[in-house]
Amino acid sequence: MVLSGNDYKNILETIDIIYSVPNTGTMFHALSERLRKFIGVYSAIFVPVDARTGAMLFGGYEIYNNSEGAMLAYLAHYAPQDPFVSCGWFRDHPNEVARNTDLHPKLIGTEFARDFLMPLASVFYVLASTLRVQGDVVGILGIHRQKCDGNFSGRHKAIVNCLLPHVAMSIRNRELMSGGALLGDTHGVIMTDEEGRPCFINTIAQRVLRGRASRSVPDPGLGSKAAFFRSGPCIYRVRTVPIGGKKRGRFIILEQHPPEHKMSARLDGFTLSDREKEVAALVVRGHSNREIAERLFISEMTVKDHLKSIFGKLEVRRRGELAAKVLGFTPRN
């Protein structure tokens, strides 16, 4: 689909609004109002998603020109009947909208349309997509038209697809900054200028880089997939947050991978004692025997005894092989 110069002008103006509005709720309503004037949207919804489970959340949703009752009914009962959910579109096609009528050509005769879309939500045609950036799923965006207004066109799909990565990035950046990731208590943080030169590197990031330049860390940009950086036996998830005006620097955030809850789940798959799991997790995180002893308030000799037992149970000979087995990758020779 070829868009016009005026379409691109409107897209760029909308992207500026997406990044400039201070909170997600206000941004969503400003975006929805722009889309109402731009492509004829009747109503819209934003539903946050649990980052761990992928489940839609009851809290934090936003509604434009529709009823809260319809939203609650959707989340409580009708979501499994939604073609976007039942056919796996939300799961398999991040940042790419589809029309509900394309996913279910006979939608008009379904319970979902008959009992929910038209009587409760007062709409029929829907464009929707999962919002994902740098591997983080932040929510689901849906825009709607009433049946009398006609369906969305290919042009409408192309316009919305241009906006989705920016909507996802905008929401994710606010969540990162409000969640304290940039404070550097548990994350490596690097701040660069517009030329990519580091202005600040915290102690965690210095340890992760191990003398390498900050430019060696990959930039996932607006992509939907996660990026990773390997440092010795450890793997770090990379997230970036743009800063500044038109000439932008960026924050680079390094988080050990897998995160704590996933590390515990991986270690549960081995026949280790609780203390051995603690020691193994710290080894995978790249800590020395002395650091492990200090963290667990035990002697280095006890750490060595635990490691001998762990190596025997997992049938590995060294720390790198242990990390590889727990994380599920093949170590380099």
Summarize the structure.
The protein has 333 residues and is of the alpha+beta class. The protein has helices at residues 5-20, 24-39, 68-78, 83-86, 89-92, 100-103, 111-117, 154-178, 203-209, 260-267, 274-284, 289-296, 300-314, 319-327; strands at residues 43-48, 62-64, 98-99, 125-133, 136-145, 188-192, 198-201, 227-231, 234-243, 249-257. The N and C termini lie far apart (49 Å).
Write the layout of secondary structure elements.
Layout: H1 5-20, H2 24-39, E1 43-48, E2 62-64, H3 68-78, H4 83-86, H5 89-92, E3 98-99, H6 100-103, H7 111-117, E4 125-133, E5 136-145, H8 154-178, E6 188-192, E7 198-201, H9 203-209, E8 227-231, E9 234-243, E10 249-257, H10 260-267, H11 274-284, H12 289-296, H13 300-314, H14 319-327
Antiparallel strand pairs: 1-2, 1-5, 3-4, 4-5, 6-7, 6-10, 8-9, 9-10
Helix pairs in contact: 1-2, 1-8, 11-13, 12-13
Explain what the structure shows.
The protein has helices at 5-20, 24-39, 68-78, 83-86, 89-92, 100-103, 111-117, 154-178, 203-209, 260-267, 274-284, 289-296, 300-314, 319-327; strands at 43-48, 62-64, 98-99, 125-133, 136-145, 188-192, 198-201, 227-231, 234-243, 249-257. It is α+β, with helices and mostly antiparallel strands and 333 residues long. The protein has three domains: 5-178, GAF domain (Beta-Lactamase, 2-Layer Sandwich); 181-257, 2-Layer Sandwich (Beta-Lactamase); 260-327, Winged helix-like DNA-binding domain superfamily/Winged helix DNA-binding domain (Arc Repressor Mutant, subunit A, Orthogonal Bundle). Strand 8 and strand 9 form a beta hairpin.
